[in-house]
């Protein structure tokens, strides 16, 4: 059985700190100032994906990879922060909290990457383990053929 200490040891993720809340019941507006999620996305990352790369609150990984593949030479601090946010969002959406497709990134991570200096205050290990348990629970359905989650722990 995989326990929280395994997550901390194997992935080096913090297991103490603030909890991660991925609830999206009213994500049309973000909590901070009531800003629309995609407006906030553009403010943080400096660009919006084209409409054909967006599906509700997810966007295609390929667009992220093409748009942010290489940090420009002589980038200022703002550009470096944008690229760091993108990289972290990709890690969260594909490695720690991936879905079965592995092709989409979710905007649910915006509140966490908005303040890069606060990223270490969250219990990412607890959230990753909870997500893996949730994904494994879905496997009991005999129609499910793929497993999502932090598969490195298995």
TrEMBL record:
Transmembrane segments: none annotated. InterPro entries: AminoTfrase-like_pln_mobile, MAIN-like. It comes from the Eukaryota. Pfam families: PMD (PF10536). Coiled coil: none annotated. Residues 2-154 form the Aminotransferase-like plant mobile domain. One of its GO terms (biological process) is meristem maintenance. This is Aminotransferase-like plant mobile domain-containing protein. It comes from Arachis hypogaea. The lineage of its organism: Eukaryota, Viridiplantae, Streptophyta, Embryophyta, Tracheophyta.
């Amino acid at each position: 059985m995989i326990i929280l200490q395994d997550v901390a040891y194997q992935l080096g993720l913090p297991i103490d700190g603030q909890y991660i809340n991925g609830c999206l019941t009213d994500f049309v507006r973000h909590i901070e100032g009531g800003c629309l999620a995609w407006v906030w996305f553009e403010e943080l990352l400096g660009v919006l994906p084209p409409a054909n790369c967006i599906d509700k609150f997810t966007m295609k990984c390929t667009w992220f990879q093409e748009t942010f593949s290489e940090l420009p030479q002589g980038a200022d601090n703002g550009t470096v922060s944008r690229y760091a946010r993108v990289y972290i969002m990709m890690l969260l959406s594909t490695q720690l909290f991936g879905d079965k497709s592995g092709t989409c990134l979710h905007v649910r991570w915006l509140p966490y990457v908005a303040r890069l200096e606060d990223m270490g205050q969250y219990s990412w290990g607890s959230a990753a383990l909870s997500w893996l348990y949730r994904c494994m629970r879905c496997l009991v359905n005999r129609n499910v053929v793929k497993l999502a989650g932090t598969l490195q722990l298995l």
